[in-house]
């Protein structure tokens, strides 16, 4: 799989399979126009993190929920693909292909977005990958269970919700679904196998049981349906349950109401965009600051650990107990100038560590003015660190 390059591609293209292999990226025209339009309005902002937060905010708004979901589904294509490949490889005996697992996973986008919380430091791709993998494994487990059950064992194991969804997927009308569900309820309440062994392999009910099921059904429905018809319905229900699979997300080309020319792109409220962008930028800046603060903590704690024990003790006495250099010298039974020299050397060492980190991680030139600012930051950090 070759990676996507531009922000427009990342948020508007989808994985294509050929013979269960990745064959390329397919562009959704509406999503591409949407991204291009909003890039033009946001000074060509190219940060992935910015656009994740941007579309996540729009996903929280009912009017733009579907468009935002599609953009984020496009964004998560790689995560879904690699989670699918890794999981399907761990199930060597499964009949599912990579593309099947991919469809199972990508159907979880709504669940991913409902659980995603950027305020808690979540990274969307990492969070989605874990959920995708879990969904695939659970689906494979459930379907492996279905595959080894007889029709009657399967009907005893499935839930009403799963049965209804299976029948809806099979295209049955609501009236027919209600009849099938009632027949299934009567079957489950009356046919309780007594033979030993697993419930997966239970056999077909005998004639006496079928007559009891028919009697219960007719009593509750007010109809007259024979046992052969009920058996046919239940076998149809079992077949529908076996065939039931997840569906891909809806196309963006679905018109709203009777307006065939309507596009999702046209339905984004422009009046709130500026404030939304400002909110996202502020959130992104706050997260960046928090990340940098965490990194600074790591750098300085590691640097202090490399100092000589007596130098660490001097820092402790100076910043935590706020002793003067004379008081420190008296307590440690050394000369005051020794305390001064070692304290200054420790400060210079920590400053050098912090300056090197700024240069390597933030990619900025370390000027004399910047060193002064870094020194002020370091002094504040030392007071807070030893004052805790």
TrEMBL record:
GO terms for biological process: DNA-templated transcription initiation. PANTHER family: RNA POLYMERASE SIGMA FACTOR FLIA, SIGMA FACTOR F FLAGELLAR. This is Group 3/4 sigma-70 RNA polymerase sigma factor. It comes from Nostoc punctiforme NIES-2108. The keyword NADP does not apply. Residues 303-347 form the RNA polymerase sigma-70 region domain. It comes from the Bacteria. One of its GO terms (molecular function) is sigma factor activity. NCBIfam families: sigma70-ECF. Keywords: DNA-binding, Sigma factor, Transcription, Transcription regulation. The keyword DNA-binding applies. Pfam families: Sigma70_r4 (PF04545).
């Amino acid at each position: 799989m070759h990676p996507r390059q531009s922000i427009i591609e990342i948020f508007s293209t989808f994985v294509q399979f050929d013979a269960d292999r990745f064959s390329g990226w397919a562009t959704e025209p509406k999503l591409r126009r949407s991204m291009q339009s909003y890039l033009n309005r946001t000074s060509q902002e190219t940060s992935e993190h910015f656009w994740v937060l941007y579309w996540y905010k729009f996903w929280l708004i009912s009017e733009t929920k579907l468009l935002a979901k599609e953009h984020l589904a496009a964004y998560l294509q790689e995560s879904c693909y690699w989670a699918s490949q890794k999981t399907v490889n761990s199930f060597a005996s499964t009949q599912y292909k990579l593309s099947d697992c991919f469809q199972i996973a990508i159907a979880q986008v709504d669940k991913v977005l409902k659980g995603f919380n950027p305020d808690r430091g979540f990274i969307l791709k990492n969070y989605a990958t874990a959920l995708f993998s879990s969904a695939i494994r659970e689906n494979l487990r459930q379907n492996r269970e279905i595959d080894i059950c007889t029709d009657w064992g399967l009907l005893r194991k499935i839930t009403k919700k799963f049965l209804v969804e299976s029948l809806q997927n099979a295209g049955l009308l609501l009236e027919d679904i209600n009849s099938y569900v009632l027949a299934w309820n009567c079957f489950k309440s009356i046919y309780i196998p007594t033979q030993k062994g697993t419930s997966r392999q239970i056999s077909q009910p005998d004639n006496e049981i079928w007559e009891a099921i028919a009697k219960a059904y007719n009593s509750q429905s007010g109809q007259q349906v024979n046992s052969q018809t009920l058996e046919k319905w239940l076998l149809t229900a079992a077949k529908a349950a076996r065939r039931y699979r997840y569906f891909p997300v809806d196309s963006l080309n679905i018109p709203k109401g009777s307006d065939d020319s309507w596009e999702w792109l046209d339905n984004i409220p422009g009046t709130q965009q500026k404030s939304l962008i400002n909110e996202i930028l502020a959130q992104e800046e706050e997260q960046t600051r928090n990340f940098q603060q965490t990194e600074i903590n790591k750098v300085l704690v590691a640097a202090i650990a490399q100092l000589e024990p007596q130098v660490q003790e001097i820092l402790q006495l100076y910043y935590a107990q706020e002793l003067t250099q004379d008081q420190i010298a008296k307590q440690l039974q050394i000369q005051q100038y020794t305390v001064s020299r070692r304290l200054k050397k420790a400060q210079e060492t920590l400053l050098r560590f912090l300056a090197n980190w700024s240069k390597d991680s933030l990619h900025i030139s370390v000027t004399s003015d910047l060193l002064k600012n870094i020194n002020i930051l370091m002094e504040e950090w030392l007071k807070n660190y030893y004052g805790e």
